[in-house]
Write a structure and sequence with these properties.
By secondary structure, this protein is an alpha/beta fold. It has nine helices and eight strands. It has helices at residues 13-24, 31-41, 44-55, 61-74, 90-103, 117-125, 166-180, 184-189, 202-215, and strands spanning 3-6, 27-30, 81-84, 109-114, 127-130, 136-138, 158-159, 193-197. A hairpin with a 5-residue loop joins β5 and β6. The longest helix has 15 residues, at 166-180. The structure holds BIS(adenosine)-5'-pentaphosphate (AP5). BIS(adenosine)-5'-pentaphosphate binds next to α1, α2, α3, α6 and β6.
Length: 216
Amino acid sequence: MNLILLGPPGAGKGTQAERLQDAYNLVQLSTGDMLREEVKSGSDLGKTAKEIMERGDLVPDDLIIKMISGRIDQNSGGDGIILDGFPRTTAQAEALDRMLDEKGLKMDHVIQITVDEDAVVERISGRFSCAKCGMGYHDHFKKPKVEGVCDKCGSTEFTRRADDNADTVRSRLAAYREQTAPILPYYEAKKALKAVDGMGGIDEVYARIKAVIEEG
Ligand code: AP5
């Protein structure tokens, strides 16, 4: 099963992808995580992406398409993929269709997580993650079971994203409205888009997504 999670910054795409990959044995492909790895490694792509990400703008389509295409190849042996943060423009959505065709794959679900902008700002401003394994947490909504210790790997080091500040969040929301929301009609026209209410607790939203998947 292959699926796409769409939604604005802070909608819960990464949080839900983490749970879905365990439940359905899928591989999560997050273009945001891949870019942050490139920045950390100091690669040419990372150097180009760093400033763009800190401004809250989108990284150019050609760079993203090249990066994700290689990853879909590498992971094609699994039970499927979850795309988180890709596609983000119409050009990326069209490129994805071409990639899937070439690889003989199909997208089973395109799930749009809908949320209020006020909630998004609250979610993003409280977000942190494990510096070692990347497990995501929140100051109020998803604390580690033992304070200061990662549930998954036991590390005591945590990190906050450079682009999780009020100014950048506003730019990221604008980029979503202007460049990503226009791809919704693309998937609507293919009768592939399923909207899920992303307001409510993490478990509640997960149950809604699972119901959409099980409905087929
Ligand atoms: P990316 O990393 O993709 O960030 P994003 O889309 O802005 O999404 P987020 O990771 O902020 O949010 P999320 O929906 O995953 O929320 P999460 O689950 O963490 O992209 C970063 C940048 O990279 C972009 O700005 C761009 O520059 C570049 N980029 C990436 N992909 C690109 C592409 N395809 N093209 C061009 N550029 C690209 O949840 C947030 C917090 O809320 C967490 O703390 C979580 O615990 C909490 N939470 C989650 N759900 C709930 C809930 N139901 N109730 C309460 N709290 C919740």
